[in-house]
Amino acid sequence: MSGNSGVKGVVADPDVSFDQLLTHLTHVPIVLSADIRYKRWEFFGDGQYMEVGTSASLPGLLFTDANIHLKVGLAEGFVGYRVINCDKAALSFFAGARYSYQGGDLNIFNNGDARLVRLRELLGIRNKLAFSDSTDWVDPVIGARGRVKIWKATSLYAEGDVGGFDANSGSAFEIHREGRTIAREPVESSDWSYQVQGGLEFQISRWFWAQVGWRYLKYDYRQEGFTNKTALNGPQVQGGINF
């Protein structure tokens, strides 16, 4: 994951590799998908949820530990129509919507030093500071997908879509430091998303199939003080059952 992300107008530039994400996962990511076809019509969608977390030691006497958890999820559904529909190849155009969610929890704990209890009381500082917030939005999406059989039960598949179309754009701002002061600067809002994926598909049996490929999802979303201009990019492995 890379790009620009921030809340309350404060924007950072995260650059997290695939192995770093695996290291900080708090549980196995949840991924579900369904694909239904009737003649040339297609009804399909998928969803995923991932949560990562880490902790850090803080300098100072009053607080020593901080835990942060970031949560990311999406769900999308589409209706498509096959313009090419034969045994060797298929090509579909589709339209639908994508729901995106991002949330975070931050907890800061004291160091448990009994000598600082009175000082904490005088300063009005609690033993634990907890912050939690989230945002979500829905984008219209259009795209195309297809597959070509290259050998027996092996096919090449590809899919691409674009969404948002500034459907949720409004006003936005960022926070900048100007000398010793903090300035709030209006910026242009945006709401776009782009996705491409592709790879190999294997029809293991009449009932089971598997895909091995790559998925790239780019967000260009900036609304109020929230910024999400990140790209999720990495390998993808999935399997399914034909009914």
Describe this structure in words.
With 243 residues, the chain is mainly beta. It has one domain (2-241): Lipocalin (Beta Barrel). 6% of the residues lie in helices and 72% in strands. It is built from two helices and 13 strands, in the order ββαββββαβββββββ. Strands 2-1-13-12-11-8-7-6-5-4-3 form an eleven-stranded antiparallel beta sheet, covered by helices on one side. A two-stranded antiparallel ribbon has the order 9-10. The longest helix is centred in the first third of the chain and has 7 residues, at 18-24. The protein is elongated and about 75 Å long. The mean pLDDT is 86.
Which features does this protein show?
243 residues; mainly beta; Lipocalin; 11-stranded antiparallel sheet; 13 strands
Q: What is the end-to-end distance? A: 35 Å
Indicate the CATH class.
Mainly Beta
Radius of gyration of CA atoms, rounded to a whole number: 23 Å
Assign the structural class, choosing from mainly alpha, mainly beta, alpha/beta, alpha+beta, or little secondary structure: mainly beta
Strand content: over 45%
The parts where pLDDT drops under 50 for at least 5 residues are: none
Average residue-wise pLDDT: 86
Characterize this entry briefly.
Helix content is 6%, strand content 72%. It has 243 residues and is mainly beta. An eleven-stranded antiparallel sheet has the order 2-1-13-12-11-8-7-6-5-4-3, with helices on one face. Strands 9-10 form a two-stranded antiparallel sheet.
